[in-house]
Amino acid sequence: MIRVLLVDDQPLIRSGFRALLDLEDDIQVVAEATDGQEGLALAQKHQPDVALIDIRMPVMDGIEATRRIAADPALTGVHVVILTNYGIDEYVFEALRAGAAGFLVKDIVPEDLLHAVRVAARGDALLAPSITRKLIHRYVNQPLPTATDGVLAEPTGREREAVALVAQGLSNDQIAERMVISPMTAKTHVNRAMTKLRTRDRAQLVVLAYESGLVVPNSS
Questions:
Q1: What is the pLDDT of residue 144?
Q2: What's the confidence (pLDDT) of residue 42?
Q3: CA-CA distance, 179 to 186, in Å (whole number)?
Q4: What is the dihedral of CA 45, 49, 54, 60, to 10 degrees?
Q5: Looking at per-residue confidence, does 100 or 9 come out higher?
Q6: pLDDT at 179 over 50
Q7: CA 168/CA 157 separation, integer angstroms
Q8: What is the DSSP-derived secondary structure letter of residue 60?
Q9: Most confident residue range from 58-62, 127-131, 143-147, 155-159
Q10: Nearest of 182, 183, 212, 176 to residue 197 by alpha carbon
Q11: Would you call 79 helix, strand, or coil by DSSP?
Q12: Scanning 75, 104, 132, 214, which has its CA 20 to 30 A from the CA of 206?
């Protein structure tokens, strides 16, 4: 059973998401919160597998709530998916850096919401190719300072290659095919890279790959 926490200051959004999720045999909404502070407390209490958190809320916003969840060793099993009305913007990038596994626009179709919850619960969150393209576009037009240069010195060459492929939106199976290795080996390369680079999940790995210069936008 996938345990879900809903954190949103709009009752209509929470009730709509809950009605949809509760119809599924393998998903259970364990709690609802109206702001990030309450959401953090409920995450600590219920230890959900997935926390769907609105990015803009009173008292404590979704970015700060995500940052605190990601920093709490007791909440390592909680995978945060950010909810937004606005698509990709600077708030979303900050949420990814803070530790979010990914994000959803609130007008998402039901099938995609259910799929996203199940993917996030596996801890195997991966940015969709459409999101990756927008990430690339953002870095082409607004390149970040290169202060992170050298941060990827520790991973091996094959791990760096796997990170670059993750940043292109490839799954473990696709990475395995591209690198001519088994899917298990591909997963091992990705997991070891995440451990060495201290990233929580693949979404943060994508951000780091662009920020560090490992992936050059114009070449993708």
A1: 44
A2: 97
A3: 8
A4: 30
A5: 9
A6: yes
A7: 17
A8: S
A9: 58-62
A10: 212
A11: strand
A12: 75
- 116 and 80 Cβ atoms separated by less than 8 Å: no
pLDDT of residue 164: 84
CA nearest neighbour of 135 among 179, 201, 90, 186: 90
Confidence (pTM): 0.68
Which pairs from 167-173 meet CB under 8 Å and 24+ separation?
167/132, 167/205, 167/206, 167/209, 167/210, 167/214, 167/215, 167/220, 168/132, 168/215, 168/220, 169/126, 169/127, 169/128, 169/129, 169/131, 169/132, 171/126
Percent of the chain with pLDDT over 70: 80
**Residue that has been written with the tokens 């099993």 in this structure:** 77
* Helix, strand, coil abundance in the chain, percent, nearest 5: 55, 15, 35
Contact between 204 and 213 (Cβ < 8 Å): no
- Give the mean model confidence (pLDDT) for residues 34-43: 96
41, containing H or E segment: helix 36-46
Report the alpha-carbon distance of residue 41 to residue 161 in Å, rounded.
39
